[in-house]
């Protein structure tokens, strides 16, 4: 299966192509440069893989939550490619992508993903790695750092923007956390296996059904 994935929902910009079990990718931490970077990343990867858009089987992208502008960039780009190629789309939670990255690097199976949402709030999501896939434990949400729901168990926290809320979160989560990964950003290479999972579960959508996730009505760019 050949998958092109992009992730632009946070300060990080990345793209990846998965061909079977092989994944090639580009990643850059570059706030406000996503529009400049993402298309060249895709072009480089497609050239490296020797592929054209119509030869892909699936498109995938980080649907949020995250920065409004970044989500719109990713959504618009994938929707345009899907319309041009008639390819199906896997919409992947940015929080789930972070959890997948934590599993890939640390083999953590119980993961709480956090993203700084500004306005003294965080986006949060609990995930379990089981049966070869990533499973969401609760519906994702947004709240003040000291209002993040507490779920029993020893969780690994993987966070983008942890330093902005560290004292409050450390106190609030103290009895439920066994380790903290404080500087993790979502990476398109971690969207690839999650997209495969969605494809196998029949959860892919067509271009006209793409629906980004903001979790908040106010804009945070």
Give the structure's gist in a few sentences.
The protein is of the alpha/beta class and 221 residues long. It has helices at 34-49, 68-85, 94-106, 166-173, 188-200; strands spanning 2-7, 12-19, 22-29, 58-62, 89-92, 110-118, 121-130, 133-136, 141-143, 155-160, 177-181.
How would you characterize the overall build of this protein?
It is a single chain. This protein is α/β, with parallel strands linked by helices. It folds into two domains: 2-93 and 186-209, Nucleotidyltransferase, domain 5 (2-Layer Sandwich); 94-181, ATPase, nucleotide binding domain (Nucleotidyltransferase, domain 5, 2-Layer Sandwich). 31% of the residues lie in helices and 31% in strands. The chain is built from five helices and eleven strands, in the order βββαβαβαβββββαβα. Strands 6, 7, 8, 9, 10 and 11 form a six-stranded mixed beta sheet that branches. The mean pLDDT is 95.
What attributes characterize this protein structure?
single chain, globular, six-stranded mixed sheet, 221 residues, 31% strand, five-stranded mixed sheet, Nucleotidyltransferase, domain 5, 2 domains, 5 helices
